[in-house]
């Protein structure tokens, strides 16, 4: 039998070392890990590392760090924060570099499965004539503006070839419900195909709800189809923005929302806001409208500078500053609802905050690097033409076919998704390597948009200082940080907006 | 609660591991018969235990006599009788808080260790006990702990021990306390992962997001980096992990930052526990470096707990008293103190929440918050 042998009788174990014994390497010597920085305001600056973790510090801190003027005792707290959060390291290559690598892979894991969102422009017909609309046409000639069944079939075939096990089939218009037969045809075909290809499909219909009927909604319920609609605010804004014969767009939208909720459930219908020049003067009224209608969140979304939008300069060409002002006011209103005990999120902030406050990836198409077009979304137009994004299709409506990736009649999967054009677009959509983005503190939170750069600045790479995408995101991200830095209650609230995964 | 007693042995040269019974008719080689106020010879039992003085009796029977106390032993408890007459309870039939002591050795030397490590060669002795003990444990045993010292210091025997439990007690939840440092070596984590042991949960302490503070608290250089690497290697193998944080003067200042670190870098952990200090082992010796009245850290604790909970992470508070916790934290408080060392103070007797309260460690009678008082619900 093995006996227990006391090797060290007595109380030697009680010898404890002091804190400084556990300092690594040479006192005050450290190495820099990759991080970027920017001033938030005259007093504070923000440091952001490669995986999106941030520290808000007093101005001048970045300089001090880089000049190696930090003192582990005098700057005790900061020094510890910088090491714990992977800004500096005691070793040339940090011992925990695998943690950084895992974090980085996690943040970029939205790329793992490739294209998820497949937009089918099922018809171009519409009974609305919204002044900001980029694409819609009213037409009696049904055949020439509806997507043909042959093209729907081919679109589904391509969708089934996506490496992504979970795809979304989104029906857009025009007014998609005007071609409800085609939607049904697409849904049935896709469901069958999904069985053989072992894919999960989420179905979405984008509609202004004007033509919706109980029968349509029962079909949606039976097939778990989500409804996405447009709501621009209270009646006097909505009806001005969204022209319709009879001037009853708002009334029909509300009626449609109510009916949809009754049949599908509250969480199966969401609404999108388009901000027009008129909207800019009424942030509070617009927020209140969404709140009043019991939406859990709303998206303060700027108008896209495409299509008719840029043509109708008088109404729509407002500068980014005005939108930012609108956004801040609207967000403030939403925050106040929360501080008074309600639960009501702003979606754009939530997307950004998820990138800022969580270690997880975010699949939102417009804020991805590499950009979401092609590798996250593809658009099959009513006429069979294939585009890199919804915006690319709008551009084509203005006769600019730069981003046409192929045609449903002729192109194979590889010709569409791996063409030279696809490679060129992707190259221009990686903000890690774009001038002005590569050293930007907010790079990990932001994205790139080659289509927008092309349409507003003449080439896919763009010029950041004069770019509306850059201006908008810089201002909004900065604003979110300033809010979090100024009030712990708002920080807690923002953390709740992004709760869960 | 008494877990140890002593008598005088006869014919015992090797440790005997067996269940106790008071039923003379249920003889088996896996049982020892307790004879209170009488003595019999019965060679069908592994041994006979008696409180009588049977010194002059000469039998071939294994027996222990003149035992000071037998009343703490219940039908079905499993004990070890050592050749020197010491009888330790290894498994209590009526408790859900049984654990195996893997070794008293440890590669850390934490400032607040409640069971200070001893540099003794106990591994083979204890392993032999466990080999006899584990098959005797009832198959419906709900939960079994493995503790130390540092169990992974067993090396191959650690995996052997787990494999034995996995095959003998497949339905039992196993909670193994380890500092996780050994798993910085991927082959050790991979070996554990290969067991596909989904009843196994590893409880691993993390005291700071800053390496130097953690290393200082556990008194071991590079411990922080090893633990984090270990956690990653374990997660890669889909092992279940609980993070354990002891609350004291050294861990409190960065508590909220530690919570953020866990969420951002270790979002895969299944459970996070914040634990009150136990006034035991090294703690009294290091009390100046450790003591902070719990009421003085409640803001930090609330921040850390609610932050993690708001992120939908599973959080608990152990070893804390409800009268010290803000009401919003009550939902996280668990009655976690092992029954055999769980007490309440005189002040507690009038308390309306005593039934839900975790109470104190027995050692807490010597040192506890100055703010413990009965609550009117």
Cα radius of gyration of chain B in angstroms: 22 Å
Q: Overall mean pLDDT score of chain A?
A: 90
Placed side by side, the strands forming the largest sheet of chain B appear as: 1-8-7-3-4-5-6-2
Distance between the termini of chain B: 30 Å
Structural class of chain A: alpha/beta
Helix content of chain B: 10-25%
SS summary, helix count of chain B: 8
How does the major sheet of chain A shape up? Answer: 8 strands, mixed
Low-confidence stretches of chain B: none
The quaternary structure here is: heterodimer
Alpha carbon gap, first and last residue of chain A: 54 Å
Shape label of chain A = globular
- The low-confidence runs of chain A, each spanning 5 or more residues with pLDDT under 50, are 311-317
How many beta-strand runs of chain B? 18
Approximate strand percentage of chain B: 15-25%
| Relative strand content of chain A | 5-15%
Number of strands of chain A: 16
Protein name (chain B): His-Xaa-Ser system radical SAM maturase HxsC
Pfam family, one (chain B): Radical_SAM
InterPro entries (chain B): Aldolase_TIM, Radical_SAM_PqqE_MftC-like, rSAM, rSAM_paired_HxsC, rSAM_sf
Domain Radical SAM core (chain B): 92-318
Draw up the topology in text:
The complex is a heterodimer of chains A (501) and B (377).
Chain A: E1 5-6, E2 31-32, E3 35-39, E4 44-49, E5 54-58, H1 61-66, H2 76-84, E6 88-89, H3 97-107, E7 117-121, H4 142-145, H5 149-161, E8 166-172, H6 180-197, E9 200-207, H7 214-222, E10 225-230, H8 235-241, H9 249-264, E11 269-272, H10 283-292, E12 297-298, H11 307-311, H12 313-316, H13 320-339, E13 345-346, H14 347-357, E14 377-380, E15 385-387, H15 390-397, E16 404-407, H16 413-417, H17 420-427, H18 450-457, H19 468-486, H20 488-497
Helix pairs in contact in A: 5-6, 7-9, 10-13, 13-19, 19-20
Chain B: E1 4-6, E2 8-10, E3 16-21, E4 31-35, E5 47-50, E6 63-65, E7 78-81, E8 86-91, E9 98-101, E10 120-121, H1 123-133, E11 143-147, H2 156-168, E12 173-177, H3 186-194, E13 200-205, H4 211-218, H5 223-236, E14 240-246, H6 255-265, E15 271-275, H7 287-290, H8 298-310, E16 315-318, E17 342-343, E18 360-361
Parallel strand pairs in B: 3-4, 4-5, 5-6, 9-11, 11-12, 12-13, 13-14, 14-15, 15-16
Antiparallel strand pairs in B: 1-8, 2-6, 3-7, 7-8, 17-18
């Amino acid at each position: 039998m093995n006996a227990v042998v006391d090797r060290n009788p007595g109380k030697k174990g009680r010898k404890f070392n002091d804190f400084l014994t556990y300092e690594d390497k040479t006192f005050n010597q450290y190495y820099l890990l990759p991080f970027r920085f920017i001033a938030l305001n005259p007093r504070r600056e923000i440091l952001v590392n490669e995986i999106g973790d941030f520290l808000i510090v007093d101005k001048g801190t970045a300089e001090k760090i880089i000049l190696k003027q930090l003192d582990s005792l005098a700057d005790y707290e900061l020094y510890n924060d910088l090491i714990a959060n992977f800004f500096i390291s005691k070793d040339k290559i940090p011992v925990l570099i695998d943690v950084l690598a895992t974090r980085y892979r996690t943040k970029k894991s939205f790329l793992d499965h490739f294209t998820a969102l497949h937009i089918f422009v099922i018809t171009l017909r519409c009974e609305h004539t919204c002044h900001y609309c980029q694409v819609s046409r009213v037409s009696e000639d049904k055949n020439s503006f509806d997507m043909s069944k042959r093209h729907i079939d081919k679109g589904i075939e391509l969708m089934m070839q996506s490496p992504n096990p979970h795809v979304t089939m989104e029906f857009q218009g025009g007014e998609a419900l005007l071609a409800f037969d085609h939607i049904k045809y697409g849904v049935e075909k896709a469901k069958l195909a999904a069985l053989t290809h072992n894919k999960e499909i989420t179905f979405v219909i984008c509609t202004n709800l004007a033509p919706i009927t109980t029968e349509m909604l029962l079909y949606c319920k039976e097939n778990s189809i989500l409804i996405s609609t447009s709501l621009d605010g209270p009646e006097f804004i909505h009806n001005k923005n969204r022209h319709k014969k009879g001037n009853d767009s708002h009334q029909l939208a509300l009626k449609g929302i109510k009916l949809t909720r009754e049949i599908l459930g509250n969480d199966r219908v969401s609404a999108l806001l388009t901000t027009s020049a008129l909207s800019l003067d009424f942030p509070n009224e617009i927020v209140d409208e969404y709140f009043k209608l019991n939406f859990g969140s709303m998206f303060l979304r700027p108008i896209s500078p495409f299509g008719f939008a840029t043509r109708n300069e008088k109404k729509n060409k407002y500068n980014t500053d005005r939108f930012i002002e609108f956004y801040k006011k609207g967000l403030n209103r939403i925050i106040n609802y929360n501080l008074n005990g309600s639960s009501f999120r702003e979606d754009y902030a939530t997307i950004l905050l998820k990138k800022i406050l969580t270690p997880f990836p975010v699949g939102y198409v417009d804020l991805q690097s590499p950009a979401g077009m092609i590798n996250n979304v593809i658009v099959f137009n009513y006429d069979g033409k294939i585009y890199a994004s919804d915006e690319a299709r709008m551009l084509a409506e203005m006769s600019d076919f730069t981003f046409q990736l192929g045609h449903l009649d002729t192109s194979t999967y590889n010709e569409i998704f791996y063409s030279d054009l696809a490679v060129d677009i992707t190259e221009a959509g990686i903000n890690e390597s774009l001038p002005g983005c590569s050293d930007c503190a907010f790079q990990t939170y932001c994205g790139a948009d080659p289509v927008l750069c092309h349409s507003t600045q003449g080439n896919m790479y763009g010029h950041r200082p004069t770019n509306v995408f850059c201006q908008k995101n810089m201002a909004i991200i900065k604003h979110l940080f300033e809010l979090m830095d100024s009030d712990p209650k708002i920080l807690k609230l923002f953390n709740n907006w992004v709760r869960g995964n | 609660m008494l877990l140890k007693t002593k008598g005088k042995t006869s014919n015992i040269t090797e440790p005997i591991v067996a269940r106790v019974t008071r039923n003379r008719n249920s003889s088996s080689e896996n049982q020892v018969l307790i004879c209170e106020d009488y003595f019999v010879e019965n060679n069908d039992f592994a041994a006979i235990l008696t409180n009588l003085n049977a010194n002059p009796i000469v039998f071939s029977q294994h027996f222990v006599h003149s035992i000071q106390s037998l009343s703490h032993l219940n039908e079905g408890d499993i004990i070890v009788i050592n050749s020197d007459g010491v009888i330790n309870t290894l498994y209590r039939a009526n408790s859900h808080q049984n654990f195996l002591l893997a070794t008293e050795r440890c590669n850390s030397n934490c400032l607040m260790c409640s069971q200070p490590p001893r540099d003794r060669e106990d591994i083979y002795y204890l392993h032999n006990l466990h080999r006899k003990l584990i098959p005797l444990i009832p198959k419906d045993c709900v939960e079994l702990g493995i503790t130390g010292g540092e169990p992974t210091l067993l090396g191959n025997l650690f995996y052997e021990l787990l494999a034995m439990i996995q095959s003998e007690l497949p339905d039992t939840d196993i909670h193994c306390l380890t500092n996780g440092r050994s798993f910085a070596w991927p082959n050790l984590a991979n070996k554990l992962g290969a067991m596909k042991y989904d009843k196994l949960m590893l409880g691993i302490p993390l005291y700071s997001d800053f390496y130097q503070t953690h290393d200082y608290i556990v008194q071991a250089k590079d411990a922080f980096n090893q633990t984090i690497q270990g956690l990653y290697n374990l997660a890669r193998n889909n092992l279940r992990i609980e993070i354990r944080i002891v609350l004291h003067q050294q861990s409190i200042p960065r508590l909220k930052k530690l919570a953020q670190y866990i969420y951002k870098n270790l979002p895969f952990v299944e459970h996070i526990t914040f634990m009150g200090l136990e006034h035991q082992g090294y703690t009294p010796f290091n009390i100046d470096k450790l003591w902070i009245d719990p009421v003085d850290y409640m803001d930090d604790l609330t921040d850390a707990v609610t932050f993690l909970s708001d992120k939908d992470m599973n959080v608990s508070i152990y070893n804390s008293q409800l009268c010290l916790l803000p009401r919003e934290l009550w939902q996280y408080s668990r009655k976690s103190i092992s029954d055999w060392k769980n007490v309440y103070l005189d002040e507690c007797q009038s308390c309306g929440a005593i039934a839900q309260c975790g109470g104190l460690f027995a050692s807490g009678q010597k040192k506890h918050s100055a703010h413990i008082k009965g609550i009117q619900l």
